[in-house]
Specification:
The complex is a heterodimer of chains A (about 110) and B (about 120). Chain A has about 110 residues and is mainly β. Chain A has no helices and eleven strands. The N and C termini of chain A lie far apart (about 40 Å). Classes of the chains: A mainly beta (about 110), B mainly beta (about 120).
């Protein structure tokens, strides 16, 4: 079955700098890779997703890249702001599957 | 458009008791998935309901059961509660099964504490 590893577990960056979170997956059949942001006391919120027919996707300050050959994908946040502080999760699945397989999460801390 | 709502937000139960958690799906969504999230970990899939039938199940024992109603709302029932069942229980709704049409919308969860 699929296994997703996520690094780092904690990331502290200065406000205005960029943050990068990396994930690897094991199942070459996976073709859907979402990223979720979870703030304290809330459920995860989908912030961006990418499918295997695309190498990169961007939405304002966030972008995701996918390397199918190496089986890894990354979340990039530019010009970080205090409201970006949260736990970020990557996940992977084959898009007709009924469940997501999640990474363990990255706690992103934005220092003022 | 309303989002996913879960009730109650917090719950404390004694070991051996039973609990029912409730979820109202986002308007237009016919699929509900339940996840268990232990502190400091990613969510673990419990099961999914599609058009009132269980559509898939994760590695959870039969004492975890569920229902989906004609309005697509859902319940998660846990019998014979154990201390390890203490977690945040997340409900997610989606448009159809799978992820071809998009991802989940999550509720804020129910924090269950078993003492």
């Amino acid at each position: 079955g699929e296994n997703v590893e996520q690094h780092p577990s904690t990331l502290s960056v200065q406000e205005g700098d960029s943050a990068v979170i990396k994930c690897t997956y094991s199942d070459s059949a996976s073709n859907y890779f979402p990223w979720y942001k979870q703030e304290l006391g809330k459920g995860p919120q989908l912030i961006i997703d990418i499918r295997s027919n695309v190498g990169e996707k961007k939405d304002q300050r966030i972008a995701v890249t996918l390397n199918k050959t190496a089986k890894h994908f990354s979340l990039h946040i530019t010009e970080t702001q205090p409201e970006d502080s949260a736990v970020y999760f990557c996940a992977a699945t084959e898009d007709s599957n009924y469940q997501l397989i999640w990474g363990a999460g990255t706690k992103l801390i934005i220092k003022p | 458009e309303t989002g996913v709502t879960q009730s109650p937000t917090h719950l404390i139960k004694t070991r051996g008791q039973q609990v029912t958690l409730r979820c109202s799906s986002q308007s237009g969504h016919n699929t509900v998935s339940w996840y268990q999230q232990a502190l400091g970990q990613g969510p673990q899939f419990i099961f999914q309901y599609y058009r009132e039938e269980e559509n898939g199940r994760g590695n959870f024992p039969p004492r975890f059961s569920g229902l989906q109603f004609p309005n697509y709302s859902s319940e998660l029932n846990v019998n014979a509660l154990e201390l390890d069942d203490s977690a945040l229980y997340l409900c997610a709704s989606s448009l159809e099964t799978g992820f071809i049409l998009g991802g989940y919308t999550f509720g804020s969860g129910t924090r269950l504490t078993v003492v």
